[in-house]
Predict the structure.
Amino acid sequence: MRLVSIASGSSGNCIYVGSDTTHVLVDAGISNKRIEQGLNEIGLKGSELTGIVITHEHSDHTKGLGVLARKYGVPIYGTRETLEEISRQKYLGEYPRELFCAIRPDVDFFVGDLEVKPFSIDHDAANPVAYRIQHEHKSVAIATDMGHYNQYIIEHLQGLDAVLLESNHDVNMLQAGPYPYYLKRRILGDHGHLSNENAGRLLCCILHENLKKILLGHLSKENNYEELAYETVKLEISEGDNPFKASDFSIAVAKRDQMSEIITI
């Protein structure tokens, strides 16, 4: 399996997960041009995509969907409620709605030879999900846009080989920043986004010695920065109630405008 963040941040998200024969995007929240450039960098073309799985309908996860659908006719997977909301997004233009494939949380499905396991998250969207994706005995997960975590989420993130996890904001930066009060409340609420601290605490619950790579993603442009997210998460791991230190793991920050390294497991 390969995992690559093509873009991750509050302004746009697109993650590639694939095997030798199956090529999937998790979200398409950047321009088609940027998506195709990213695929080209890992030796693929848009025409080789097997499917696109969508976490939820917000534009930073769907922006490039219309062009991809028109150009390549690639199947689009999401919950029924998510797909209904996407069908109302005028900025996507016209594309074949028959490409939509409705899925349900906790009902696994296959895209090519990848087993996709959607699980519910709490976010201010119609019916959002995160995804665990498996191939043979390897598994990765992309889990962002969740206001909090619970035992259900922890259980779905056990035994991973790699994870891209939201580390959206620093609470102090957000509280002192320029956002209006209602938006601060939204981000900090149970249907908002994970803070750096909570990302670190969630990681403490899922760490194991065979976890090969941790990518911190969906960073806010206004309320976070890479070094702060990285150092905060490392501190939570090293001081948390777990047998590990942050130095035991390969941790990196997924950038909003640059690709991550190619993670091969």
Notes: The longest strand covers residues 114-120.
